[in-house]
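SUBJECT: A protein chain and its fold
Encoding: whole-number codes for local backbone shapes
RECORD BEGINS BELOW THIS LINE
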Amino acid sequence: MANITGASDGTARPSGAEKRSDLRARVISSVILGPLVLLAVLLGGYVYAALIFLMALLGVREWVRLVGPAERELAKELSYGFLIAALIVEVLVGPAPASFVLIALSAVLLMAVAAHGYSHRRLIAFGIPYVGFAAVALLWLRQQPDDGVELVLWLSISVWSTDIGGYVAGRTIGGPKLAPRISPNKTWSGFAGAIVGAVIFGGLVALLFGAEMPLLAGAFAGVLAIVAQMGDLFESAIKRKFGVKDSGRLIPGHGGMLDRVDGLIAAAPVLAVFHSTLGETVGWW
């Protein structure tokens, strides 16, 4: 696949054979990885924590390689260590101390890379809270004693519905581009379809799980759809800035870890904050 080479240029258009091959790889990857992720969510405990730790480390690795030269090992090693430290704090103490550690260690990383004269130092340091807050949120959501499994599954399905709804609406309706300089293939119809898909499936899944307010859950899934798409556009802007199409080649047909979970990275902290504040007050779940 060709890299993006200019801000005004779109992604390369693959041939029909390349599209079919890419779709086949995406389906195979999803069939293999989907059940494994679902099993980890259902088992919870150390199995789920190990999954989140692994995803976070792969994500921050891709981030540092994306925004900083690959040969600069110090940034990667510090990012790994700081992120692991923050996630251990979440497991042992809770999300609030872990969030403070993420911010503090991000500042330490910024000073370290600045002292070594790294370029894009702020972006390098941003990788820790960018990936870390999502990981902390996903750990905390699963730790909820009565509905941890349901909340993580509902979030995942809402984000997946966002992707599917946006893809279907964008391909069938088309129309004006949403942000052509950032992501040339996204349309306003796809943006709307993503929200509709999340509202419908988010509401239905909440009803199936016995949520107290499935209509509110559906509406909030629509909010998360907007957040997830903003996360997608943010990562697209970063990749375009550095002239790459994918954050990595980890998952056949999907690209890197960040390519696969960019929407989830944005949506998970929003759900965690909502559930722990207003959501708890109104008893939505």
The longest helix spans residues 16-43. The chain has two domains: 44-143, 144-285.
